[in-house]
Amino acid sequence: MASLAHAIRSFQSGDLTPNDFFAEIDQVLATDQANAGRMLAILNEEHTNYPLPPDVYVEVQRRIENRDQVKWTASSEETRLQTNAGNHAKAAPPTSSEQSGGAPEPIKGVGDTLNGRFVLEECLGFGGMGMVFRALDLRKLEAADRNPYIAIKVLNVQFRGHPKSLIALQREAKKAQALAHPNIVTVYDFDRDGAMVYLTMEYLSGNPLSQLLRTEGFKGMPYAEALPIISGMSKALAYAHERGFVHCDFKPANVFLTASGDVKVIDFGIARLIPKPEEEVEATVFDPGSLGGMTPAYASPEMLEHGEPDPRDDIYALACITYELLSGHHPFDRLPANQARGKRMRPERPSGLGRRQWQALRAALSFERGTRTPTVARFIHGMSGERPAGAHLVGAGAALLLAVLVAATIAHYQPFANHQGGEPTTAAPQTPLATVQPTATPGVATPASVASILASVPCSLLRASERDNTLLVRGYLPRYFGIPRLKEMLSAAPGVSHLNLDVRQVSDDDCGVITALAPYWSRNQEDGSATSIRPRGRNAELSEGDSLILDITTPPYDAYVNVDYYVLDGSVVHLLPSPRAKDNQTPPSYAATLGSLGNWIVSKPFGSELIVLLVTPVPLFDGIRPEHESRSNYLEAIEKRLGQIASKYGPEHITADFVLLTTKPKP
């Protein structure tokens, strides 16, 4: 026969959903003859060993009390338990109403309304801080919004009694708003209704991953089906880690699979900033870790031993979930990591998992932080079963671009954006700049008049060809010259009946880049563009909040890849190689994707800047250059070095390609 203790342990181990748990509690209460006092003692004992979510604890207590119609007041001998970071039980501080002698304020539930605006319609689940509801936003409903529903987290009674509860919610809202990523739930705001404090966020339609894992008969998911879920979780954690946050309670219940197939990580409620000893820390900084809260089955040994938070804590949890997703069971039978380590438990390789993937998963499951996979990027690259996207290019630094650009930020510069105000205007130079001769597709004639016109455009990279009686011109020209002027000149040229232009305008400040690399771009075009760099996005345009993903290809010989970001402030940021990612060698005809973890997010200000891919047969420089430097100094250095390489290996082994990336505000 089921017992109260058994039901609690089953819920704590994840074998029961909240709904199933309360159904079993009701069955126990209907059949067990023990009195309320005995049941409360059992509840407190189990809660002390493995703390229940506060609202679950309060609800079980309420049902026990109501069964025997026992009236418990603030002056009774009842002890409401709460755990601190050390898991030592203690009495929860009284709420303001209890301090004044009044009855404790009831928990908000289904049917209640917050601030006369949000109607709580359905309880979606429990978290370490409170209960989450689907709520109808009456203001949205009045405005005929197509989707008037949001999710609301209402702080539980015990947490609300914590003297810093409002600070906690405010901090959670602030950091959650900072974690704007497609795989992280969107948080809107926080507010209060009397003593009730709550958080509003996007409403997700779907189910938590925990529900899938606890489905009766679930024996694991095929690798190919599981990989998108693993990737989605990894992207969310990698993004948070890049911004200095550790989730600290990553578990299947905090991963949501939406009806549209997206993966969303929720509840960064107890996330703590990654410690940064070099930074000053204010004495008044609120540490949500002091409120306790972790799930033993997914907590790393360091978390269980109350060590400082580290991204590798999340990686351990991510690996446990991944193992469970692939095999159908927890790698250590849901034992806390320190106990599993004491028993020298070793997980078996899941059926159907390749050797490379198993090596990656096993490393992430290490009980020792020092030998555990250091970054989420390394983990997902290993789990992909293929050469990591840009493995020779970015090494372990999957978030290289973001880290480098942040380190190189000066004045108003932000990653993947221009100076405020969009495209600058510059007067035409007094003296002619570089002129690049046009090239034509082999075997296809280009009118001499066209060649003459293209050659007259200063600071340009222009390629002409003919197809089906249409003149095709693609490339780059300076903004001051303008596309309309080029179109007018070409349309008037003898022999041109139909014209098609695929030309981008660059800043006049980019003329130095074009001058230095024009021969290598032209040769690359003549050879069929074996060297290429392309952003994911229509017409190389990205909007605020989009992820920047770059696809690159290399020529059919061993090569070294250099990716540089030319900033409008006159500097150049070296994305690859750099002090953070030194290995940039590739095999012949190599294809890679940079930024595939979704860590590079477009933000304001917006505009256009050049990203250049330069491929050489030997390292461009003997050592690693600074992360960012003066553009003029760098261009002078590469012109000299490219001349040396061309002299020894031949200019045909140097190729280049450009991306003019344009960013704009969210529509």
Summarize the structure.
With 667 residues, this protein is an alpha+beta fold. Helices cover 32% and strands 21% of the residues. It has five domains: 4-92; 113-202, Phosphorylase Kinase, domain 1 (2-Layer Sandwich), CATH 3.30.200.20; 215-386, Transferase(Phosphotransferase), domain 1 (Orthogonal Bundle); 396-424 and 507-667, Immunoglobulins (Immunoglobulin-like), CATH 2.60.40.10; 428-503, no CATH class.
Give an overview in words.
This protein is of the alpha+beta class. The protein has five domains: 89 residues; 90 residues, Phosphorylase Kinase, domain 1, CATH 3.30.200.20; 172 residues, Transferase(Phosphotransferase), domain 1, CATH 1.10.510; 190 residues, Sandwich (Immunoglobulin-like), CATH 2.60.40; 76 residues, no CATH class. The chain is 32% helix and 21% strand. The strands form seven sheets. Strands 18, 20, 21, 22, 24, 25 and 26 form a seven-stranded mixed beta sheet that branches. Strands 3-4-5-6-8-7 form a six-stranded antiparallel beta sheet. The chain has a three-stranded antiparallel beta sheet with strand order 9-11-12. A hairpin with a 4-residue loop joins strand 11 and strand 12. It starts with a helix and ends with a strand. About 17% of the residues have low confidence.
SSE-based structural type: alpha+beta
Question: pLDDT under 50 segments (min length 5)?
Answer: 69-104, 276-292, 386-445
CATH class of the largest domain: Mainly Beta
Indicate the overall shape: elongated
Tally of alpha and pi helices = 21
Domain count: the total is: 5
- What is the number of beta strands? 26
